[in-house]
Amino acid sequence: MEEFDRAIEILEKILQDGSVPRNIKANCQKVMDRLKNQDEKQHIRIGAAISMLDDISQDQNLPFHIRTLVWEIASLLEVSAGKIK
Questions:
Q1: CB atoms within 10 A of CB 20
Q2: CB 45 within 8 A of CB 35
Q3: For residue 2, how far is the Cα from the chain centroid?
Q4: Reported CATH class of domain 2-82
Q5: 55: part of which helix (H) or strand (E)?
Q6: Which end of the chain is more exposed for a tag (fewer CB within 10 A), N or C?
Q7: Given this model, what pLDDT does residue 1 score?
Q8: Is residue 8 within 8 Å of residue 35, measured between CB atoms?
Q9: C-alpha torsion sign, points 40, 8, 85, 47
Q10: Residues of the chain with pLDDT under 50
Q11: CB neighbours of 77 closer than 8 A, spacing ≥ 6?
Q12: For the chain, which residues make up each domain, given as ranges?
């Protein structure tokens, strides 16, 4: 699933960005950990991650350029979820 992999890549980019506050990085790490958790079915992981991303996107300390990336990740995961059979 290329959308799923792209979402992970963007999360990794956010975690490497020095302008991102620590609490945002910690929450993005939780999203990545949830997506990579093989103990749950993929559609459940994606749903939980999208919900977590929604919370992150509403944080007042979130830099605008990162908010755009968070929305992009959520969109990629929604497309990915639509492809799960």
A1: 19
A2: yes
A3: 14
A4: mainly alpha
A5: helix 42-57
A6: C
A7: 66
A8: yes
A9: positive
A10: none
A11: 3, 4, 7, 35, 46, 49, 50, 53
A12: 2-82
- How much is the pLDDT for 41? 93
For residues 53 and 45, is the Cβ–Cβ distance under 8 A?
A: no
Q: How far is CA 75 from the centre of its chain?
A: 10
In whole angstroms, give the CA distance from residue 7 to residue 25. Answer: 15
The token duo for 43 is: 């559609």
17 touches 66 (CB < 8 A): yes
Rounded CA separation 10/77 (Å): 12
Query: Could you give the 3-state DSSP secondary structure of residue 40?
Result: coil
Please compute, for residue 33, the number of CA atoms within 13 A of its CA located in the half-sphere on the CB side.
6
CB 11 within 8 A of CB 57: no
Residue 54's nearest CA partner among 78, 32, 71, 72 is 71
| CA–CA separation, 13 and 82 (whole Å) | 24
